[in-house]
Amino acid sequence: MKKVISLVLALTLCLGVCLTMSACGSKTDYSVGICQLMEHESLDKATQGFVDALTEELEKEGKTVEFDTQVAGEPNLCTTVVNTLTAKNVDLIMANATPALLAAANGTTSNKIPVLGTSVTDYADTFSNNIPENVSGTSDAVPFNEQANMMVESLGLKAGDQVGVLYCSNESNSVIQYEAVKKEFEAKGIVVKAYTFSDTTELQGIVTNAANESKAIYVPSDNTVADNDSVVGTICNDKKVPVYTSYGGAVCYASLAIDYYELGKETGKMAAEILLGKKTPADIEIKTLTPSVSYNEDLCAQLGITVPEK
């Protein structure tokens, strides 16, 4: 009986060692935290592109990565998400949207965990021209002069016509874009009026006013509007007022926008270089993508807009 018990104990110990060795052998090489501001098509695409590209790049080197993806839901909860990720001592944080990037930068001042942003318009303005050394990423900035020209030409806007710019006043990116596009329109004699809100409960009333007073509505890359753009589309389409968005989407008659999945992929490639020790965030320049033109032909037909042949 003693021999049997000894044999069982030996086998149990051996099995435990083997399982431990197996677990160690399957240990993930890197852990990456993702703080995404909110669920929305553009941000979701950027996150997916990031995950796909980083996984692929690391697999080429025989490395594995584990992702901890968390959606904050609103700007003031980004700090909570980042604190959770830093407590886990992740190897890198990807921050999707400006509030997430600010929270990640503020939350890594002491531990210097590398931070990459995406879906962020202007890094220099966000950090008052003092981008932290552990921060880099990709920008969703688009040429505002070309967007303004596209609207003027496709809608036949003329001096004295009013374009309403709709955005959430809590989003710094949107304020930057409003000022930029305002300058471009006013140079052509177009009147520009801002229609802002701070709470989504105000959105329906604000959009109704904008549609009643404007020849067209311009929406910057505003996450809050984008998350509720069906409200914008319903009201403006009923009133035959064309909507132009900086991020694309189903509610706009046309757009000059970037591909957010590709934006995320570029961010993922940056992350691979950092994790593999080839570069630091300070070595990587902020990257932008070339936007592409698109027209919603069904919506244009509904609004009586002629889609250019070219």
Task: Summarize the SSE layout with pairings.
Elements lengths: L1 H24 L4 E7 L4 H20 L4 E7 L6 H10 L4 E5 L1 H9 L8 E6 L2 H4 L8 E5 L4 H12 L6 E7 L3 H15 L4 E7 L5 H11 L2 E4 L3 H5 L1 H10 L4 E3 L8 E4 L2 H16 L11 E2 L3 E4 L1 H7 L7
Parallel strand pairs: 1-2, 1-3, 3-4, 4-5, 5-11, 6-7, 6-8, 8-9
Antiparallel strand pairs: 10-12
Helix pairs in contact: 2-11, 3-4, 6-7, 8-10
Verbal overview:
By secondary structure, the protein is of the alpha/beta class. It has two domains: 30-140 and 259-279, Rossmann fold (3-Layer(aba) Sandwich), CATH 3.40.50; 144-257 and 293-303, Response regulator (Rossmann fold, 3-Layer(aba) Sandwich). It has helices spanning 2-25, 41-60, 78-87, 98-106, 123-126, 144-155, 172-186, 203-213, 223-227, 229-238, 260-275, 297-303; strands at 30-36, 65-71, 92-96, 115-120, 135-139, 162-168, 191-197, 216-219, 243-245, 254-257, 287-288, 292-295. A six-stranded parallel beta sheet has the order 2-1-3-4-5-11, with helices on both faces. Strands 7-6-8-9 form a four-stranded parallel beta sheet, with helices on both faces. Helix 4 (98-106) links the parallel strand 3 (92-96) and strand 4 (115-120). The termini are far apart. Residues 1-25 have low confidence and may be disordered.
